[in-house]
Amino acid sequence: MRIAFVSDAAYPWHKGGLEAGERVEAEELAKHHEVHFYCNRWPGMEKEFVDKGIHYHTWMKTTDQKFYRHGRRSIRNSVHFAIMTWKLFFSGQKFDLVQANIYPIIHVPILKFYCKLKGIKLVLDVVEVWTRDYWTEYLGGILGRLGYHYTNYFLKSADFYIACSKETADGIAGHDIGKHRVSVFFPILNDEMLASIAVAKKKPQLIYWGRLIKEKRLDKWLHVFAETKKKVKNLRGMLIGDGPEFEGVHEMIKRMKLEGSVELKHSYNDQKELFGTVAQSSALLQMSEREGLSIIVLESVSLGVPVVLPSYTPIPDEVKELCNVDDESKLPDLLAKIVRSKNKSAFIKNTDNLKRFSVSNTWPFYEGLFKKLELD
Fold first, then answer.
1. What pLDDT digit, counting tens, does each position of 295-318 carry?
2. Which of 75, 56, 77, 155 is nearest to 112 (CA)?
3. Contact, 172 vs 185, CB < 8 A?
4. Within a 10 A sphere around the Cβ of 209, how many other Cβ atoms?
5. pLDDT digits over 273-283, tens only?
6. When you count CB atoms within 10 A of the terminal residue's CB, does the N or C end of the chain come out lower?
7. Does residue 91 sit in helix, strand or coil?
8. Which residue segments constitute the domains of the chain, with CATH numbers given?
9. Contact assessment for residue 176 and residue 182, using Cβ atoms and an 8 Å cutoff
């Protein structure tokens, strides 16, 4: 079969959770089928190229600075990407299946029209279903309400939906979409690579890595770290990532006089090197207030690193059950206890949950999906 992925961001040129999952899916499918990937042209990408068997087609140049404005996704960039999706009509390609990231949502009706006209099955990847309140908080009153109603209407455009969690699947079904059209699936754990990471002696270190955006609440992360350091004098912190908040986080570290305790680093190019650094840490502290799944939680637990979350965490239950959750005010005591413990594995729970996120599940899942869509 011929399969197309459509997403404004592409991993590893842009590092994000959904993007990493789509890359895994595209790589696995490319072992059996012809896979094309349509996206923005991030630094380091050519206009047309093949990588790991995936045929990449990039439409317009972008950077983190263009992708985000005022700490949120750029509306202008999103509209421009939606306009670029019209190029599919003139690509000369014929696909059996188009799988697309639902966000930035503006492009979805164009994809629906394209697939309807060409007789192609449309599958949407959904990591979050936002409430009206979240839309208005994110975009403001008028634009937020418009975004909410627009999404609700065009969410129903696909033949099938892939949700990253049960909570997201329930959110999709709540929009009068039959549950038989929704599956929960998110392959992200590379078992072979994770198993190759040497068991490391733990350092008194708290870690976070990922996109540096406002929703990750790194201001709260630094506050909790500072309070924990009062209890564990030799504690170190490490923040790894890139994004629009990089300079802001750097300034916060200086303002809080944590330069000698917290190291801020750009994203690693080598994932194995990153995992080696993570494995040495005593705990992952994840303070995000918006999260569809949180891959860093799954990877940390897989590496034997306990995870600590605030009680307000939006992380779904199947991931949260692996972690230690408490009120924000109590996190420093909990973290100090973990850092001092000689048995850190005691703070990791329900590890059987990890199996459902294994990359090895990818091909069996898609075999089943093709049958449901009558593509086999």
1. 999 999 999 999 999 999 999 998
2. 155
3. no
4. 22
5. 999 999 999 99
6. C
7. coil
8. 2-187+358-372 (3.40.50.2000), 191-356 (3.40.50.2000)
9. no
